C-alpha cells in the first residue's frame, strides 16, 4: 500500500526524516510514536501525499509518487482519509456539511449521498448533532466528526494525527474502537500518538505494529503490555 525505500525529507533547512525503509501493507494497523518534533506529522503528510520525499523512493498503491502528476496524486489522495490533529473544520458549515465536504471537493453531488452521511453520523454517534456548528461540539464530538469526514469517500487507508490527543480516556477508547472497526472491515490504519496506553489497548484487540521515530529515523518499537 505504501512503500518507502531509503526515503528522506527536508523542508529546505535541516533533514527532518532520513533513510526510511518501510512497507505498510493493505489491512495493517500501525501506530507511530516518538518525541515531540521527531517528525511524526511530517511522516504522516508524506503518507497522505501532502508532501513528497526529497530523497529516495516512495510508492503509494504501487504508484511511484515522484512520477505522479497532480491529477494522479489527487486521485491517490482520495483513497486516503485523514484525521488532522486540529480537525480542520470550516467553522461556518454544520457538522453534516463538513462531513460531506470531501464529496463536494471531489465534484460529487452530496445530496445523492444523504443516506451514506446519515449512516456515518449514526455510526460515530453524532446523528443528533448533525446541524451543530463545529464551535458547538465537544472535543470528543469533533474527533468523531473528523473521523466521519475522513471515511466519507470510502478510502482504503485512514491516517490519524493524535486523534485522541485532546479528549478524555473514555472518549479516546471510543475513537479507537471506531478505528479498530474500520480495520476489521479491511481498512489500513496509521495513527500517530504519544499515548502508550492507547497502543496497549489496541494491541489487546488487533495486531498492531508500533513504529518509533527518533532523530528522523524509524525504528520498530516494542510496547510492553
Ligand atoms: N512546514 C514546515 N516548514 C519547516 N519546518 C517544519 C514544518 N513543519 C514542521 N517543521 C519542522 O519539522 C520538525 C518535525 O515536525 P513535526 O510536526 O513533523 O513533528 P511531530 O513529531 O509531529 O511533533 P509533535 O509531536 O509536536 O506534533 C520540527 O523541527 C518542525 O519545526
Quick recap:
With 225 residues, this protein is of the alpha/beta class.
What does this entry look like structurally?
The protein has 225 residues and is of the alpha/beta class. The protein has a domain at 91-149. The chain has seven helices and ten strands. It has helices at residues 40-47, 70-77, 95-105, 114-123, 139-151, 169-184, 196-203; strands at 2-10, 15-24, 29-33, 55-60, 63-64, 80-83, 157-161, 188-192, 208-214, 217-220. The strands form two sheets. Strands 6-7-8-3-9-10 form a six-stranded mixed sheet, with helices on both faces. A four-stranded antiparallel sheet has the order 2-1-4-5, covered by helices on one side. The chain is globular and about 45 Å long. The protein starts with a strand and ends in a 5-residue tail after the last strand. It binds adenosine-5'-triphosphate. Adenosine-5'-triphosphate binds at residues 11, 16, 34, 36-42. One of its GO terms (cellular component) is plasma membrane.
Amino acid at each position: 500500500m505504501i512503500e518507502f525505500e531509503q526515503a528522506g525529507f527536508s523542508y529546505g533547512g535541516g533533514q527532518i526524516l532520513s533513510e526510511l525503509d518501510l512497507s505498510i501493507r493493505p489491512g495493517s494497523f500501525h501506530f507511530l510514536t516518538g518525541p515531540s518534533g521527531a517528525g511524526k506529522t511530517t511522516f504522516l503528510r508524506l503518507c497522505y501525499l501532502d508532501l513528497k520525499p526529497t530523497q529516495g523512493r516512495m510508492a503509494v498503491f504501487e504508484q511511484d509518487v515522484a512520477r505522479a502528476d497532480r491529477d494522479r496524486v489527487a486521485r491517490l489522495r482520495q483513497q486516503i482519509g485523514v484525521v488532522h490533529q486540529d480537525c480542520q473544520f470550516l467553522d461556518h458549515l454544520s457538522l453534516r456539511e463538513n462531513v460531506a465536504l470531501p464529496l463536494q471537493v471531489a465534484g460529487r453531488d452530496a445530496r445523492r449521498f444523504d443516506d451514506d452521511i446519515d449512516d456515518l453520523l449514526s455510526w460515530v454517534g453524532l446523528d443528533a448533532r448533525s446541524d451543530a456548528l463545529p464551535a458547538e461540539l465537544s472535543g470528543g464530538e469533533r474527533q468523531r466528526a473528523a473521523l466521519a469526514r475522513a471515511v466519507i469517500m470510502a478510502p482504503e487507508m485512514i491516517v490519524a494525527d493524535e486523534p485522541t490527543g485532546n479528549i478524555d480516556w473514555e472518549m479516546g477508547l471510543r475513537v479507537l474502537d471506531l478505528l479498530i472497526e474500520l480495520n476489521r472491515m479491511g481498512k489500513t490504519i496509521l495513527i500517530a500518538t504519544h499515548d502508550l496506553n492507547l497502543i496497549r489497548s489496541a494491541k489487546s484487540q488487533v495486531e498492531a505494529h508500533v513504529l518509533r521515530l527518533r532523530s528522523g529515523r524509524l525504528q520498530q518499537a516494542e510496547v510492553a503490555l
